[in-house]
Amino acid sequence: MPERSRPPLFATLAIPMVGANDKGQPPPWEKLTELYKILPHLFAAAAILCASVLPYSEGRSDKVIVVAVILALQLMMRFAADYRYRRRAEDAEFKHWLLGFVVISLLSGIAWGTSIAILYRGSGPEAQVVVLAVGCGIVQSCAARAYMAPASTVLVILIMIGIFNATALSEDNWLMLPICLAYVAFQASYMTRLVDLEQARAAAERQTDTLVLELAQSNEKLRRANEQLMRHAATDDLTGLANRRSFDASLQTEVDKTTASGASLSLLLLDVDHFKRFNDTFGHLAGDDCLRRVGRMLKEECEARSYSPARYGGEEFAIVMPGASRQEAEIFAAHILAMASALDFPELALPAAALTVSIGLATMDCTDDCVHALINRADQGLYAAKQAGRNCARMIERTNQTDVTA
């Protein structure tokens, strides 16, 4: 990846606020909130008042009073701005408050520069050194926050340096001019580096957010793909019902629940009558369509009852019926017999009720039954239904056999 060319110095320092013009990114309200805070201005006012001690001791109390008034007005302005900013509307326009910050920053620069110039002019050498040191400290403090708002910071520094230089030149102190120019150049280089670091940090943060989002999207796609694979692994391709493996797991789960709760559980095994003859007569494609229609019918009938249909194998189907008592299982089996006989195959010109099914039933005895025994009794019922002439249902219990005829 080619290295991004570094923007010119003036272009970097002319940025109103780093991140404010980034497309697709929310306005950097957190930076603006930090810039509106009053605490740095309290420190600046305190430092300037400390610098006024020496001029005051030299008998220049009028200077100190003027400076105190200027600083008081500046702090009142900052307090008012901070108060209004913290109570802004939720839908406030970012550019409006950014412009407001720039304006009060320039006014603060004028107040600081004027205060330092007043204390410097006409004071003794020792007092001037202290005032100059305080001014440099305020400038350095401003420069340290340039990574958030470069343009306003540069203007504040230029205003302060300009006022101070005018005062120094008025006292024929021409040496201060090249010193201040060198100092401004140093601060400009320092601020540019801060802005570059902030922009690099923001770019890295955006790239990280993008990668995290892409990772989340990839994980979601992977999750859906895994769910789809699991569904495919548990689904019979032809009928769309649960396959044998899924049926075995579902039945074991329901048996465990029934054993723990003492509720009812019934199992239905269904076989399409004379399916081999149907295949041989109408072809395998018609046979597949027959199984699909039977599967669709079973799914529709089971959905309303929270039963679980599955393709048991070949032309055989199974239905797990949680909560179904023996009587409910018999009624449902009779209903399935009727629905199977009503399946229509107009394209094959079949006579009425040409398709029938045989059903074997078993209801679980919670005291001593198990999965194997339940399937075995349902299978015996299915065998008994076929022996009885098909198109009927049989329920096998431990002691007797119940007939459920369509």
Structure description:
The protein is α+β, with helices and mostly antiparallel strands and 406 residues long. The protein has helices at residues 9-13, 29-36, 39-51, 53-57, 61-86, 94-120, 125-144, 150-170, 176-233, 244-261, 275-282, 284-303, 326-341, 371-387, and strands at residues 265-272, 308-313, 316-322, 357-363, 392-396, 401-405. A six-stranded mixed β-sheet has the order 2-3-1-4-5-6, sandwiched between helices. Helix 14 (371-387) links the parallel strand 4 and strand 5. Helix 6 runs antiparallel to helix 7 and helix 7 (125-144) packs antiparallel against helix 8 (150-170). The longest helix is centred in the middle third of the chain and has 58 residues, at 176-233. The chain is rod-shaped and about 125 Å long. The mean pLDDT is 87.
Summary tags:
single chain, 6-stranded mixed β-sheet, alpha+beta, 406 residues
Looking at the structure, what is the overall shape?
rod-shaped
Q: Which whole number gives the mean pLDDT?
A: 87
User: Ranges with pLDDT <50 over ≥5 residues?
Assistant: none
Provide the gyration radius in Å.
Answer: 44 Å
Report the biggest beta sheet as strand number plus sense, adding barrel if it closes: 6 strands, mixed
How large is the count of helical segments?
14
Helix content: 55-70%
Q: Structural class of the helix and strand makeup?
A: alpha+beta
The H/E string reads HHHHHHHHHHEHHEEHEHEE
What spatial order of strands do you see in the largest sheet? 2-3-1-4-5-6
